Amino acid sequence: MASVKTTTLPGGIINRPGSTIDYKTGTWRVKRPVVNLDKCIGCLICWIYCPEPAIIKRDDGKIDFDYDYCKGCGICSLECPTKAIRIVEE
Amino acid sequence: MSTSEAIAYAVKQANVDVIAAYPITPQTIIVERLSEYVHNGELDAEYIAVESEHSAMSACVAASLTGARVFTSTASQGLALMHEVLYLASSLRCPIVMAIANRALSAPINIHCDHSDMMGSRDAGWVQIFAENGQQAYDRIFQAFKLAEDEDILLPVGVNIDGFFLSHAVEGIATISDSEAATFLPPRKAKYYLDYSMPMTFGAFALPDWYFEIKHQVVEAMDRVPKKLAEIEETYYKMTGRKYDHVGVYKTEDAEVCLVCAGSSAATAKFAITRLREKGIKAGLLSIRLFRPFPVESILLHVKDVKALIVMDRAMSPGAPSAPIAQDIKATLYDAGLNIPVANFVYGLGGRDISAAEFESIIMKIVESLKAGRPIEKGVMYWGLRA
Ligand code: SF4
Ligand code: SF4
User: Fold this and answer.
1) Closest residue CA from atom 3 of ligand 2
2) What DSSP line would sit under A47-79, residue for residue?
3) Which ligand 1 atom sits closest to the C-alpha of A69?
4) How far, in Å, is the centroid of ligand 1 from the Cα of A34?
5) Which tens digit of pLDDT belongs to each residue from B182-239?
6) Residues lining ligand 1, judged by CB closer than 6 Å?
7) Domains of chain A, earliest start first
8) Under DSSP, is residue B273 helix (H, G, I), strand (E, B) or coil?
9) What is the ipTM for the molecules in this complex?
10) pTM of the entire structure?
11) What domains sit in chain B, N to C, each tagged with a CATH number?
12) Would you call B210 and A8 a contact, using CB atoms and an 8 Å cutoff?
């Protein structure tokens, strides 16, 4: 019986706090949100509803996405009051 | 003392930190004695009296993750109720030791011995050891902790004793001294454990990208058990002169027919084989003492030249082509390229006794078939069942 060496700790223990940041949920995405900055009023409703830390607030008050963590759920697009976010194919 | 008392005494000498248990016949005496030890101050441990076996195993897992040495005991419906948590114990690599006083599963409700309880959990990732008598059970408790807590293993271990036949049988037990116990089994030193000062995550969610690898760790650890247990037994042997190996072997050297069984029946079968040998029948015995991992190498050392194997299972697997031990024996033979006929009997369910005379008839039945050139019956035969 050949044994495969795994690189995880026994039982999948994670011995470093805060390591979730290494887990890029962006790999789950099949569609991505795109913002139309002309329509964006900077209300940050999308920021409140986004289940991931994937909405980034820009210096001008409008928003951008962190595609490393955006999993493409589309909630931001649904909640945006000005319909500034479109969901497009990857 | 009884096997149950011997186990409780060994657990006390192993100086466990936490016991979480729920009483169930026929293991109750084990946890009763342990609660007395804790109550009397003879054992400095947390005794958690829980409301069910599911809670017992859950508490054991949590306690084990803090780095504690943990023991529990159960049987039958209790083990079945623990079922889902057994997988957590192995996959979270908790070195819990549990005595299982093997008992039939309902219905009909029955309190007596068979191996159906453990067989129902055989794929849970626990090391499973069968004791044939009280002495083995006592000695195996120390070995079980040492094996379980080894950094290369980190798996929970079940020490199985036949309900009533062993749990309530009284025999003279050779014990080790407390100082020998402490030398053989120093306090557990866990590498990773729950501690506020160094936060870690145990039991994190694992998606398809990692789940398989983390589960496979249990297989890797299992693969290391036979060698590690042999080393542990060697140390124990030096201290006590007692050693049991992965299989119990009796008169197999020139055997033409070899009987395979597990638990207390081994002694009865041995008696039958001694009598048959006096009549010139070349029969031998292999007793499965380590059941998980299945001792493939040890078995192959003894069966290569036999003409037939008789596998006695004290559990059934309805609808399966063989009962549990026979399934593993057949896979062992097949992988080794051995086409040895296997006669598989299910016997003794719900505590039905089997006598030495019955073992003799079983062996003679197969010996006569071989002599007459008749093929060995395939599938599962049910020994002692009313026609
Ligand atoms: S698609 Fe979902 S995850 Fe991505 S930014 Fe919008 S709400 Fe957040
Ligand atoms: S919800 Fe729409 S308008 Fe408000 S900040 Fe987000 S994208 Fe801009």
Assistant:
1) A40
2) HHH-SSS-EEE-TTS-EEE-TTT-----HHHHH
3) 3
4) 10
5) 999 999 999 999 999 999 999 999 989 899 999 999 999 999 999 999 999 999 999 9
6) A 33, 50, 52, 54-55, 65, 70-76
7) 24-89 (3.30.70.20)
8) helix
9) 0.79
10) 0.92
11) 3-240 (3.40.50.970), 247-382 (3.40.50.920)
12) yes
